[in-house]
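Project outcomes to date are best conveyed with an example. Our students and postdoctoral researchers have been running inverse folding experiments weekly, and each run begins with a structure described purely in tokens. The record below, which covers 349 residues, was selected by the lab manager from last quarter's runs and is presented without edits.
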């Protein structure tokens, strides 16, 4: 693996630095090293997500996340043995070290999950009017606005296909004929595309009631105006492992108050906090649903947004989980957002 050095990170680094390291390498593992470049242990993508959910700050050290007793190999370990070790231990990356415990390489199991094919459907909500995006959406639906030389929706489809997904359903309404004419049945991209035609606007969740036949596998729902590096396959796997009814991708955020905060009760000071940091999670607009969630829709098809739907599911004590998404993420909701993302894509092309 030629770019294995991108996975190296000093043991004193922060979780924020670890996330950058994961995104830069794309190998879903970090090799934590000390000042002498000796291997301390490993950190996986899942390790970081679990710690973020447990309350760790992006500024927290990675030291408590590092798995110190990690599986390793040496140059004398044959390729066949390394593959067997990874398969038995269910790991997809294997650090290769010398006798001084210094990293000299990284073995990737090429038959791992990255090459998997997924039959799960991806439902893309692309029927909105995009009123906030005027004048860009006056004669063009927002999912067809160009980023670089491709429409927003094409970027979403290509990324999902690269992860092994091939079955797509696109919900259309406003200028929907333009979307249907552009993408057709998906043959041009080597995928399958079906459409949900909204006779009237059904909100960000209502179109799910139009699904026929009902999905038999957990399915992903995403907004047609969200560009991100969130891996759909990781989201599906997380959902399955945790046996959730719904999984919501959430963006961890932190806001630092520039002032010292004083808490009072009446005129009595009860506490002081020096420039506290407030943590919150934003909705990333990407979800996984079990097919059984569709039974909660009313027989009469109605306009319902995703927030209302999920609140209704929570009222019935259903298992709704959060999947912390630290990958790059852009919500193209306003003209200024579109211009900002457009500049980034133009720089790439």
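After processing, the design step wrote out the following sequence:
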């Amino acid at each position: 693996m030629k770019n294995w050095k991108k996975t190296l990170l000093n043991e004193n680094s922060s979780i924020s630095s670890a996330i950058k390291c994961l995104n830069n390498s794309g190998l879903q593992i970090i090799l934590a090293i000390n000042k002498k470049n000796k291997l301390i242990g490993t950190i996986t993508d899942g390790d970081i997500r679990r710690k973020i959910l447990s309350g760790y700050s992006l500024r927290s050290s990675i030291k408590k996340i590092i798995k110190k007793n990690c599986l390793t190999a040496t140059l004398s370990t044959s390729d066949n043995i390394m593959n067997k070790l990874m398969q038995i231990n269910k790991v997809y990356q294997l650090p290769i070290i010398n006798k001084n415990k210094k990293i000299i390489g990284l073995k990737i199991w090429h038959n791992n999950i990255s090459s998997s094919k997924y039959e799960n459907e991806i439902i893309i909500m692309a029927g909105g009017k995009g009123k906030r995006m005027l004048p860009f959406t006056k004669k063009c639906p927002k999912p067809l606005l160009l980023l670089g030389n491709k429409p927003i929706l094409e970027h979403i489809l290509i990324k999902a296909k690269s992860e092994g997904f091939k079955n797509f359903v696109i919900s259309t309404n406003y200028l929907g004929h333009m979307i249907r004419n552009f993408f057709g049945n998906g043959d041009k991209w080597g995928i399958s595309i079906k459409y949900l035609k909204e006779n009237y606007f059904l909100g960000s969740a209502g179109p799910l009631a139009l699904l026929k036949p009902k999905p038999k596998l957990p399915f992903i729902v995403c907004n047609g105006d969200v560009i991100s590096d969130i891996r759909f396959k990781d989201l599906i796997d997380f959902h399955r492992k945790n046996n959730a009814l719904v999984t919501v991708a959430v963006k961890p955020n932190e806001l630092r108050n520039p002032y010292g905060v004083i808490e009072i009760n009446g005129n009595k000071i009860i506490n002081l906090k020096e420039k506290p940091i407030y943590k919150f999670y934003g909705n990333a607009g990407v979800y996984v649903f079990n097919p059984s969630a569709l039974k909660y829709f009313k027989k009469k098809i109605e306009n319902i947004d995703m927030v209302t739907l999920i609140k209704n599911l929570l009222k019935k004590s259903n298992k709704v989980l959060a999947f912390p998404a630290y990958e790059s993420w852009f919500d193209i909701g306003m003209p200024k957002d579109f211009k900002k993302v457009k500049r980034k894509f133009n720089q790439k092309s």
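The CA atoms of residues 145 and 306 lie 24 Å apart. Helices lie at 15-25, 45-53, 79-89, 152-162, 176-183, 232-241, 306-315, 335-348. The training component of this project remains on track.
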